[in-house]
Specification:
Blueprint (H helix, E strand, L loop, with lengths): L19 E3 L5 E5 L6 E2 L13 E3 L4 E4 L13 E3 L4 E4 L13 E3 L4 E2 L15 E3 L16 E3 L1 H7 L1
Length: 156
C-alpha cells in the first residue's frame, strides 16, 4: 500500500490527499494514517481539522502526550491512537466527545488512572484501553464491546 503522506502537498486540495476523507463541501472529516511510520508528537497542524469524525493514527511511532487541541474535536466519533508511544495522562476533556462511539488507546505508554469523564460519554460503544478500569465503566449504557486482554494478561 502506498504511503498516503506522499500525496500531502499544500499546492493541491487536501481532500485529494491520501488518507483524508472530506464532505462534499470540502470539510475534512476523516484522517486514516494508520501504519504510516509517523514518528514524534502529533502535529499541531491537525488542530485545523476541527470537523473530524474519524481519526486513526494507530500503529505508528507517535510519542508525547495527547495534545490539548483534541478538546476541539467535538464531532469525533472514532479515535484510534493504539500501538504508539503516546505517554502521559489521559486528558479529562474526553467528556466533550459526546458523539464518540469508539476509543482505542491500547498499546500506548499512558500512565495514571483513566479519568471518569471517559466513562460518561453516552454514545461510547467500543473501548480498548490498557490499564485498570474504574467503577464508572458501569455508566456506559451503550457499551457493546470492551477489550480487556491486556488487563487480563497483566493479572495472570
Amino acid at each position: 500500500m502506498p504511503n498516503p503522506l506522499i500525496s500531502w502537498n499544500s499546492s493541491i486540495d487536501c481532500c485529494s490527499w491520501g488518507g483524508v476523507t472530506c464532505t462534499s463541501n470540502g470539510h475534512v472529516v476523516g484522517l486514516d494514517l494508520s501504519s504510516e511510520t509517523i514518528s514524534g508528537p502529533i502535529p499541531g497542524s491537525f488542530a485545523n481539522f476541527s470537523n473530524l469524525r474519524v481519526l486513526d493514527l494507530s500503529s505508528n511511532n507517535i510519542s508525547g502526550p495527547i495534545p490539548g487541541f483534541f478538546a476541539n474535536f467535538s464531532n469525533l466519533r472514532v479515535l484510534d491512537l493504539s500501538s504508539n508511544n503516546i505517554s502521559g495522562m489521559v486528558p479529562g476533556f474526553f467528556a466533550k466527545f459526546s458523539k464518540l462511539t469508539s476509543l482505542s488507546l491500547s498499546g500506548c505508554r499512558l500512565n495514571g488512572t483513566f479519568p471518569k469523564e471517559i466513562f460518561q460519554v453516552p454514545t461510547l460503544q467500543t473501548i480498548d484501553l490498557s490499564g485498570s478500569l474504574p467503577d464508572s465503566i458501569g455508566n456506559l449504557k451503550m457499551l457493546s464491546t470492551i477489550d480487556l486482554s491486556i488487563v487480563i494478561s497483566m493479572v495472570q
